[in-house]
Design goal:
globular; 7 helices; 11 strands; DUF1177; two-stranded antiparallel sheet; 309 residues; DUF1177 family protein; alpha/beta
Amino acid sequence: MSLQQTLTVFELMDSAHVSGQDVVDLFARYPGVIARTNRADGPKGGTDFVRITVPGSKGKSSGGTAPTLGIIGRLGGIGARPTRIGLVSDADGAIAAVTCALKLADMQRKGDTLEGDVIITTHICPNAPTRPHDPVDFMDSPIDDVTMNDNEVVDGVDAILSIDTTKGNRIINHKGYAISPTVKEGYILRVSEDLVRIMEMTSGKPAVTFPVTTQDITPYGNGVHHLNSILQPSTATSVPVVGVAITAESVVPGCGTGASHEVDIALAAKFAVEVAKEFGRGTCQFFDADEYQLLLSLYGSLRHLQNRK
């Protein structure tokens, strides 16, 4: 993963006037990539959703059967203007996701096309609200979580990596990034051995994982405490979801500025790109399908945890 690509996206988004169209324009020189944006408005403002599809050589978009990976840049907003000036910590997820798309597009142009399609989604809002949260304030979103999932959790993907800044807590005390156990239809499954292997290969260090609670995989708005929104995509899909948390050793508010570390964002993006390579060719599994079926036979469905009530 080129740090320069991360910096390119970082600088693009560090603007009070950036829009989804600005992100789409990044991909104008990549004719094989499909990038589009749409506006969504809510009671607290609006945001531009972005969807970037990088077709694979054997992907479903061209009639193939290779599995499709979804990469979501999860966040409330990239900025909290006018109360904060500049990029907020919460922007890391969007920057990482778009960096993944830029890297995959550049690889494709140079002749390195993945087998499976990759669909990257996120949203661009430079003036999102904030909200109180323990132990530090969170970024809020101008639109509701249902709208967020409707635009970011797309049909046709076979697994999802959800990248989100996860620094406003005392649960993860590690600077860099960490991965969650796999979540599927209300079940918190074991951490994927393949994802651990890829994380250790790309970072050159032992894998770092973080705990997930039942509360974290239930929908926002139900009144219970959530670590953050990193696993909210799991409430709106039947495919396996893994959180990729960009982390810090200290407690950093999501609305804090000057708190993004480009090297950590690049590391998370590099991990996601390597997962995309292997997932498309069938050498990376997010969960053990046989064991999941055994859990269903023993304990039944937990899909009710995906519902708000």
